[in-house]
């Protein structure tokens, strides 16, 4: 399953957005209001839980300076990645889009598609406000 957030404009340079996203504690600042739990586990891992959802541990898998940050599920139960693509549009201004890619069976995909789409759209919208 592949989902995309809307592309948002951020009033920060790509380097600043990249720096923000590589500090995992900053994800708490862009989480939806339905966040029930957020815990930094290490410099590259964090745990979060949204209302009515199980706890999920994300870890930074890879990154490309000032252009991309890839997070992935730390558990094989829900194998997915969340990629932030960052592009410069003007000095001190960039665009960011989140891409979700997961390997789920058809039934699971149907159940989680809408909540995940809403989740990545909210993350993206909140990222535009940093």
UniProtKB/TrEMBL annotation:
Top-level taxon of the source organism: Bacteria
Protein name according to UniProt: Carbon monoxide dehydrogenase subunit G
């Amino acid at each position: 399953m592949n989902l995309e957030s809307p592309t948002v404009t951020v009033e920060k340079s790509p380097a600043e957005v990249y720096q923000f996203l590589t500090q995992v504690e900053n994800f708490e600042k862009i989480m939806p209001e339905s966040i029930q739990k957020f815990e930094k586990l290490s410099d590259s891992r964090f745990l979060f839980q949204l209302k009515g959802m199980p706890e999920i541990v994300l870890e930074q898998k890879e990154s490309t300076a000032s252009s991309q940050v890839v997070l992935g599920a730390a558990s094989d139960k829900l194998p997915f990645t969340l990629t932030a693509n960052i592009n410069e549009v003007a000095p001190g201004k960039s665009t960011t889009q989140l891409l979700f890619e997961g390997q789920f069976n058809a039934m699971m995909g149907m159940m989680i598609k809408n909540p995940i789409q809403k989740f990545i759209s909210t993350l993206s919208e909140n990222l535009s406000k940093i």
